Amino acid sequence: MKQAQTSRKSTPVSDDSPKQILIVDDEVPLLRVMREALTACLHCDVDSSPQPEYGFELAVRKAYDLFIFDFAMPMIDGTLLFFLIGKVYNNMEPPRTVPPLLLVSGKGDEKRAQELLKEPGVVGLIPKPFAMNRLLEKIKECVPGIEAIA
User: Fold this and answer.
1) What is the rounded distance in angstroms from the CA atom of residue 106 to the CA atom of residue 59?
2) What are the mean pLDDT values of the chain's consecutive 10-residue runs (150 residues total)?
3) Which of 49, 51, 68, 136 is deepest in the core (most CB within 10 A)?
């Protein structure tokens, strides 16, 4: 079973390095579609994992500009994963800045999901199913300087 996948665009659009995005979602087909859409439409590198524990490992190894996590996953949900990463980042030497979190969820109308939008660092919630252009627009809002590929 693949633990994590990385996609990279080989031709940069500008002199700036691509933005780094980490996606963790236990729905593998959706994970693949999101990764492909982001790398095809935005100047970014995308790491992804269907398993939160591997997403955690990726987040500790590398700095990201945005996290996109599924709200409801078995064992560790997206918000718990985000808070665990935040704890580790705050205790690193030197401390690392926690990137914003964009949640995707089939349970977006739940009270808990709506309350999470008030938490520091949580920048949005996109209910599933969603149109990919909606996700791309939200990412552009959340990641200053991210460029669309012409």
Assistant:
1) 24
2) 43 64 97 97 97 97 96 90 96 94 82 83 92 96 91
3) 68
